[in-house]
Amino acid sequence: MAEYAIYRQTGREISSAETIALLRRCAELGLVHQTANTDKPDVICNCCECCCVLLSSVLRYGMNQVISKSRFRPSIDYELCTDCLVCVDRCRFGAVEEVGGKVVAYQEKCFGCGQCVTVCPSEAIAMLEVRDPDHIPAGQPGFSLSRAPVTTKPT
After folding, report:
1. Is residue 120 one of the residues assigned to a domain?
2. Residue 36 maps to a domain
3. What is the per-residue DSSP string for the chain?
4. 113-125 pLDDT tens trace
5. How far apart are CA 88 and CA 111, in angstroms?
6. Which CATH number does the domain housing residue 42 bear?
7. Rounded-to-integer distance, Cα 1 and Cα 146, Å
8. Which residues contact residue 64 at a Cβ distance below 8 angstroms, ignoring those fewer than 6 apart?
9. Percent above pLDDT 90 for the chain
10. How many domains does the chain have?
């Protein structure tokens, strides 16, 4: 996908360090990292429900089947948790809630985005692997310029 964006002159090549910094900034802003559910992802999106049709389909209309849940879920260490509730405000999926002044994680609502982890000031939340690697389909093709819909270079 990056090659296509560069080809169409809608993007530019960036270094690995720039990519990591950009992903960190997107996480700080509360954007949900998403990619194709394949072992050969061709794109990384950083989404919010106001702009992403897939994320808004889940959050506004309950169409949970339009995005895949990750292999990871949050685990809260209640000895470290200060019940500051910052993670509750950050969770777009309603999977982390305040119940009687305490933080509770509802695994069935969680999509495994990790946003609760990124804001926890006491580092009381960790993402644990809950699905085997085969949850991600193998051998799915990524994007290639040879399949790009445009065959001539834009002027």
Report:
1. yes
2. yes
3. -HHHHHHTTS-----HHHHHHHHHHHHHTTPEEEE-SSSS---EEEE-TTT-HHHHHHHHH--GGGS---SEEEEE-TTT-----HHHHH-TTS-EEEETTEEEE-TTT-----HHHHH-TT--EEEEE-S-GGGSPSS-----GGG-S--S---
4. 999 999 999 999 9
5. 14
6. 3.30.70.20
7. 11
8. 58
9. 52
10. 1
Dihedral (Cα; 9, 14, 19, 21), 10-degree rounding: -110
How far is C-alpha 149 from the chain's CA centre? 27
Answer yes or no: is 152 within a domain. Answer: no
Per residue in 20-73, pLDDT (tens digit) is 999 999 999 999 988 877 777 778 889 888 888 988 999 888 898 888 888 899
Q: Is residue 110 part of a domain?
A: yes
In contact, 42 and 1? CB cutoff 8 Å: yes
* Residue-range definition of the domain harbouring residue 105: 2-131+139-147
Separation CA 59–CA 53 (nearest Å)? 10
